[in-house]
Specification:
The chain has two domains: 173 residues, 3-Layer(aba) Sandwich (Rossmann fold), CATH 3.40.50.2000; 168 residues, Rossmann fold. Helices cover 45% and strands 15% of the residues. It has 14 helices and 13 strands. The two termini are 19 Å apart.
């Protein structure tokens, strides 16, 4: 069997695709898996690092208003779809699995042209154009927020196996030793995605003295493109965390953006968080975080309102209240879906062999 995973551009599209690929390989190590992405984007590094073959086809951004890009769209689209269809034909693909983004558009249209089964998963509470397009010509549509897409069935976001099976309590000591954190102090985890978040970094830098005075240790992923923070007592700063399972196990509370993958991982880990939605885009980050926040599993604050003083005061009030922290973790955990990777892998195999919805 040969499976094409259509994903590219951002980690939020690529990571769930690779997680499903891992689940498929656990079912049958002989399954051939190819990731189809764009000529630009994080897939050029993330995909080979996880041991998958990557083929690239031109991404086709879909213009939202009339202009020169709209005029050039038909020619670009024809070339991209032909390239994707050639990949499906040469690999004898049995199924295409798409996770959205412009990089997936050629694969979606090529699957329709070649009559290859298509499975689509939407992670965000506000779907993108690519998945809304794909949902019109396949019955295999799944979404983390099913009411966001007409005809979609509920399916959590596929997570890394290490996070889906994480026992934070059992891994706590090992995780803190791994990062060099105080085994006894409450730990605040701060991260802003694969590239960090400049405003979060500025806020945490200003909050460090107050957090230290409160006895709170900080694990901070500041992003490889940002300046290296100044050393401080109780403060561990790294450019990027490649063992998020251990970061979640080491932490008692997180401060983060609210991408779909981040929200899904924190819920599955049962880790309370302060969500600071990215202030650009179409507002999907706030929508991603709201279900957990509404149930008491986290807090939410606008980026413009986040200050060092507010973060120090709020973090201390949560971290020094054991019963509140426990209740928040339990509420967050009730929103977690730990085995969506395996659920979606089974659906992909059924679609590839002509199984029903």
């Amino acid at each position: 069997m040969h499976v094409i995973l259509a994903a590219g551009g951002t980690g939020g599209h690529i990571e769930p695709a690779l997680n499903v690929g891992d689940a498929l390989r656990r079912v049958d190590p002989d399954i051939a898996i190819t990731v189809m992405g764009s000529e630009r984007g994080l897939e050029s590094t993330l995909v080979p690092a996880r041991g998958y073959d990557l083929v690239t086809v031109p991404a086709v951004p879909l213009p939202r208003r009339p202009g020169p890009d709209m005029v050039r769209l038909p020619g670009r689209l024809r070339r991209a779809v032909k390239a994707a269809a050639d990949v499906l034909a040469s690999s004898h693909a049995d199924v295409v699995v798409g996770f959205g983004g412009y990089a997936a558009v050629p694969a979606y249209l090529a699957s329709r042209r070649t009559h290859t089964p298509l499975v689509v998963h939407e992670a965000n509470a506000r779907p993108g154009i690519a998945n809304r397009l794909a949902a019109r010509f396949t019955p295999h549509v799944y979404a983390s927020v099913p009411e966001a897409m007409k005809g979609a069935r509920a399916m959590g976001l596929p997570l890394r196996h290490a996070i889906g099976t994480l026992d934070r309590t059992a891994m706590r000591d090992e995780a803190r030793a791994y990062f060099g954190l105080d085994p006894e102090a409450p730990v605040l985890l701060v991260f802003g995605g694969s590239q960090g978040a400049r405003h979060l970094n500025e806020v945490i830098a200003g909050a460090l003295p107050g957090l230290h005075a409160e006895g709170i240790a900080v694990l901070h992923a500041f992003g490889g493109r940002n300046e290296v923070p100044e050393p401080a007592p109780g403060y561990v700063a790294v450019p990027y965390i490649d063992r998020m399972d251990l970061a979640y196990a080491a932490a008692d509370l997180a401060v983060t953006r609210a991408g779909a993958m981040t929200c899904a991982e924190l819920a599955a880990a049962g880790l309370p968080a302060i969500y600071v939605p990215l202030p650009i885009g179409n507002g999907e980050q706030r929508l991603n975080a709201l279900p957990v926040v509404t149930s008491g599993g986290g807090l939410i604050i606008d980026d413009a309102d986040l200050s060092s003083e507010w973060l120090t005061r709020t973090s201390a009030s949560v971290l020094h209240d054991g019963s509140r922290l426990t209740a928040m973790g339990e509420s967050a955990g009730r929103h977690g879906v730990r085995d969506a990777d395996e659920q979606l892998a089974r659906i992909v195999l059924a679609a590839a062999t002509g199984g029903g919805r």
